[in-house]
Specification:
globular, alpha/beta, 7 strands, five-stranded mixed beta sheet, about 200 residues, two-stranded parallel sheet
């Protein structure tokens, strides 16, 4: 909202709980038990009332993801569920939408951009998984980490919108908060991936 983006689509189905507050800045104590979407909209409205905010109060899945993201230019993924990540990735592939990926766990995070300029997709990084990762409450996460990774994701989204700079396409940025170091690894298309194989 503060960057001047005209339309934001927010997807969530949950309510604000006290344990959410230590790792984000969009909700506060007054928002406990309020819909996360309503709370987030209120915060964005307070920053910039000119932003058009579309609220999608649903649990994202393979059946509804295409309808949700089809009207947007790009998708920022902050989920913590493999099945939802795959559904988002596959929908972005089908609709030719860039996907700004971020993931966190404990003291580490990672960021990349998928489905951009014929680059790799999320399945190239994680070909298949039947397990689900622990969410932030279950695994624990350094309270500042979502802010670091989320800001990096927002930066990549802005670069894509402005067509500026070197986007994290084909590159996975790894952040370790304990030793305060970033590491970058090259990420190629998986030759067996449904996104079309090697670059």
């Amino acid at each position: 909202g503060a960057t001047g983006v005209g339309t934001l689509g927010l997807v969530d189905f949950d309510f604000v709980e006290e344990h959410n507050l230590q790792r984000q800045v969009i909700h506060s104590m007054k928002d406990i038990k309020k819909s996360k979407l309503d709370s987030a909209k209120e915060s964005v409205d307070n920053l910039n009332p000119n932003v058009n905010i579309n609220l999608h109060n649903i649990r994202l899945n393979e059946e509804n993801v295409l309808d949700v993201i089809k009207e947007y230019d790009l998708v920022i993924d902050g989920t913590d569920n493999f099945n939802v990540r795959y559904a988002i990735n596959d929908a972005c592939l089908k609709l030719n939408k860039p996907l700004v990926y971020g993931s966190i766990s404990r003291f580490e995070g990672q960021v990349s951009v998928f489905n951009f300029n014929n680059g790799p997709c999320y399945r190239c990084l994680v070909p298949y998984s039947t397990k689900n990762i622990l969410n932030c409450t279950e695994s624990g996460v350094l309270g500042t980490l979502p802010g670091v990774i989320g800001t990096l994701q927002a930066t990549e989204a802005i670069k894509i919108i402005l067509d500026k700079g070197d986007v994290l396409n084909g590159r996975l940025l790894l952040f370790n908060a304990l030793n305060m170091k970033f590491k970058e690894v090259k990420l190629n298309k998986n030759e067996n991936c449904r996104c079309g194989g090697k670059n």
